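Ticket closed. Logging final result for Sporulation protein YpjB.
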Amino acid sequence: MAERLFKIFLVLSIFIILPIQIGTAEQTGTQEKKDLWRELNHTSDSILRNVKEGNYDDAKELLNRFSDDFLSIRAADENLTMRELQVITSVYDEVNEAVVSVSLPHKDRVEKASKLRLLVDVYDAPHEMLWERTRSSLITPISNMKSAVEAGNNTKFQNDLNAFINSYETVRPAWSISLEDENYEMIEAQIKYLQHLRGNFQNDKEILEHLDRMEAQLNKIYDGTKEDTSDPSLIWVMLTIGGAIVLSLTYTGWKKYKGEKEREKQRRRDRRRLR
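Final structure:
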């Protein structure tokens, strides 16, 4: 009888203790990933600070450390998708080239380093991301473009559009990782169409209407509102852009694309729940 009770106790102990051990191991792994991302984020901040101060050699050394630390993260964070790895690697390469490029203006180097800073911060602070503070850098050029169109000043419009594109390129990698796919693809399509319109400045009414749509979309992004894929304006943009964009963004293709991306989106959500 005593032997039987001992066996029952042993089995119950296994069922009770084993899940606790597994849970503890998972928590340890999750904390390790958080710590690695936090350290990488601090490094990206130091890189940006040194670039701003013109300390390019120090920034280069920090980029070498960044590369080593990122290898550790790749080994520890199994939730990183291939696309995310490509985005991070591509932005890192841009900054690495920028800090050693003698011919590149200081302003451009700072923009490259800022791009990396905003991107890495998405992983360290997914609930309070730095890019959320960049609203004015995109909304202000939109307002300036409207004023230029209304005044018939094509030169100012082109300059303001260039300023907008520069600001967008800085935040774009972070958005490609952190935004809902619908919001990101929508603003991408709108910007491509705006660039198409820049050669038709005389069509001021269409440009102003498109800028209004872009401003509304940007406000949705900064306010954290999910894009409604049934919105007729989305279909309008997809059908208007033309050429290869039409082929890739027609409504039927969009629905199929959305379905294919759902698995990646779910992995993203799973990773953030672990954090």
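The chain has two domains: 1-125, 127-275. No further action required.
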